Amino acid sequence: MKKNTNVWIGIILSIIIGVIIIYSIEYNKSFLQISIAYLVFILPVIFLSSFKSKFLSFALALTTILTAYFLYKFSYFDSVIGVILAIITGGALNYYRVSKAKVFKK
Questions:
Q1: Is the pLDDT of residue 53 over 70?
Q2: Model-level pTM?
Q3: How far is 35 from 82, CA to CA, in rounded Å?
């Protein structure tokens, strides 16, 4: 049952991502802004559960807030699409692929 659910979730996520990309192309959204926002946010979203320290959580929150401010200040509204894509794909990768590994001891 779990494997079948994972397949359906993957299909639904791919449809959502496809719709977002088609929307971006049809309404002439900036590919550069989308790409930069996606690349900036994909790794923090993937490894969000790996942040164990307060400092890394603070750094991620501060970076997110400052990035959102600068995107709004300079009217880079197309970057929101890249952030949404990063949250969808990074969240799925985090949930289904990133697992905790045990550290080797000597």
A1: yes
A2: 0.75
A3: 6
Closest of 83, 90, 85, 2 to residue 49, by C-alpha: 90
3-state secondary structure of 17: helix
- The token duo for 66 is 């400052």
- Give the tens place of pLDDT for each residue, 58-86: 887 888 888 888 888 998 888 989 989 99
> Which residues does 96 contact at the CB level (< 8 Å), separation at least 6?
6
- Asked if 103 contacts 62 with a C-beta cutoff of 8 angstroms, the reply is no
Residue 45 pLDDT:
81
Indicate left, alpha or beta for 69 from its phi (over 0: left) and psi (-120 to 50: alpha). alpha
What's the Cα-to-Cα distance from 101 to each of 26, 75, 97, 98, 104, rounded to whole Å?
43, 41, 12, 9, 9
Per-domain boundaries in the chain: 2-96
